[in-house]
Design brief:
- This protein has one domain: TIM Barrel (Alpha-Beta Barrel).
- 30% of the residues lie in helices and 22% in strands.
- It contains 8 helices and 12 strands.
- It has helices at 28-35, 37-47, 62-68, 147-156, 178-191, 210-223, 261-269, 283-299, and strands spanning 2-8, 52-55, 96-102, 105-110, 117-127, 130-135, 160-163, 195-201, 228-232, 235-236, 249-252, 275-278.
- Strands 1, 2, 3, 4, 5, 6, 7, 8, 9, 10, 11 and 12 form a 12-stranded mixed beta sheet that branches.
- A hairpin with a 6-residue loop joins strand 4 (105-110) and strand 5.
- The longest helix has 17 residues, at 283-299.
- Residues 71-93 have low confidence and may be disordered.
- Bound molecules: zinc ion (ZN).
- Zinc ion is lined by residues 6, 8, 124, 164, 234.
C-alpha cells in the first residue's frame, strides 16, 4: 500500500466561514478558489499510484472537511484544467463517490480512477517541543501543549503518531530534535502507541536534505528496531503548483493488506516493513515557502 501521510490541503480552515470577507478581511471568493486545488491534488495522488493520503493541516481540519463534504468538488475532469486556482472556471460537477469508513477516514472513487483513494483525517500539531502529526484523528487537538500530552491525545483517539522532519530544528522547521525524538519513541513503545518517524521529507531540499540524511543515519544506527521509517511529500495544496507534489515522496507499506487507518495502526504497531520512494523538492520552491516564516523568526512580527 502506497501512502503519502503528510499533505497540507490549505493554510487555514475556511470551510466554515460565511459572508463575503474572511476573518482577516480577505475576499472569500478568492479564498474559495484555492480550495479547487484539492480535487486536483487528489487526482495527482491517484495518478502517482497512491492508495492513501493523510491531510495534515496545521491546527485545523478544513481540508478533510472540504473533501468529505461536497463543498469544493466541482473541478474540471480535463487534466489541462488541473491548474487549480489559476484555471478556476467552476463549470463542471465532477463525480466523486464518497464513502465514510469511520470518523477518521473516507474512501473516494472517481470513474476516471483505476482504484479508490483513502483519505485520512490528520493534523500537524505544534507542541512546546516541536511538531508532531496525528494520522487518522477523530477530532482536532489543540496546539501549544507538551509533546507528551499531545502524543497521549493522538493515541487516545486511536490515531497514529508521526514525527515529521525530526532533526530539522532550524527556525521555522519545527523538528522536535534528537533528544525529544528518542524520548518520545521510547515513551510510545512503553505505552504501546503506534509511532513512525519521517526520515525523508519533500520540503527538505538540498542542502537542507542534510537533515533527511542525518535522520536516516540516526534511525538506522540507533532506532531501527524501535520505530518504522516513512517518507512524505509535505506538499502544500494551498501554494501555487505545490499540490502537484503530493506523492512526490511516498512510503510503500509493503505488506499492508488494506488501506485503512486501523490496518495501518496494527501494521505500525507490529513494526511492519516500509520502503520509501521519491525525491526532495527543489530548493527554490522551499526557499519561497519558508522565507516568510524564517524572516518572521529573525525579525519578529
Ligand atoms: Zn507539514
Amino acid at each position: 500500500m502506497k501512502a503519502d501521510l503528510h499533505v497540507h490541503g490549505m493554510s487555514r480552515d475556511i470551510s466554515s466561514y460565511s459572508g463575503d470577507l474572511g476573518p482577516f478581511g480577505e475576499d472569500i471568493l478568492e479564498l474559495e478558489r484555492k480550495l479547487y486545488n484539492l480535487p486536483s491534488l487528489l487526482n495527482v495522488a491517484v495518478s502517482r499510484g497512491l492508495d492513501m493520503i493523510a491531510l495534515t493541516d496545521f491546527g485545523h481540519m478544513g481540508s478533510f472537511k472540504v473533501v468529505k463534504n461536497d463543498y469544493s468538488f466541482r473541478c474540471s475532469d480535463d487534466p489541462q484544467d488541473w491548474e487549480g486556482i489559476f484555471n478556476y472556471n467552476g463549470h463542471c460537477e465532477s463525480e466523486f463517490e464518497k464513502e465514510e469508513i469511520d470518523k477518521s477516514s473516507i474512501r473516494i472513487k472517481n470513474e476516471n480512477w483505476d482504484k479508490p483513494l483513502v483519505v485520512l483525517k490528520g493534523e500537524e500539531i505544534n507542541t512546546l517541543q516541536g511538531e508532531v502529526i496525528g494520522i487518522g484523528l477523530e477530532s482536532l487537538i489543540e496546539p501549544g501543549q507538551r509533546l507528551k500530552d499531545t502524543i497521549d491525545e493522538i493515541a487516545r483517539q486511536g490515531a497514529i503518531i508521526q514525527f515529521p522532519h525530526p532533526l530539522a530544528t532550524f527556525p521555522g522547521a519545527g523538528g522536535i530534535g534528537l533528544q525529544n525524538l528518542e524520548e518520545a519513541i521510547d515513551y510510545c513503545n512503553v505505552q504501546n502507541y503506534p509511532q513512525m518517524t519521517e526520515i525523508k521529507n519533500g520540503n527538505l531540499a538540498s542542502p537542507l536534505n542534510y537533515f533527511n540524511y542525518k535522520t536516516k543515519k540516526l534511525v538506522e544506527k540507533h532506532l531501527s528496531d524501535k520505530t518504522i521509517c516513512v517518507g512524505n511529500s509535505d506538499a502544500r495544496g494551498h501554494t501555487s503548483k505545490q499540490w502537484k507534489k503530493v506523492g512526490s515522496i511516498y512510503t510503500d507499506f509493503t505488506e499492508l493488506e488494506e488501506p485503512s487507518r486501523d490496518a495501518l495502526r496494527d501494521y505500525v504497531l507490529k513494526k511492519g516493513k516500509t520502503e520509501i520512494y521519491g525525491k526532495e523538492n527543489n530548493i527554490f520552491i522551499v526557499g519561497a515557502m519558508m522565507a516568510p516564516v524564517v524572516l518572521k523568526k529573525i525579525f519578529g512580527s
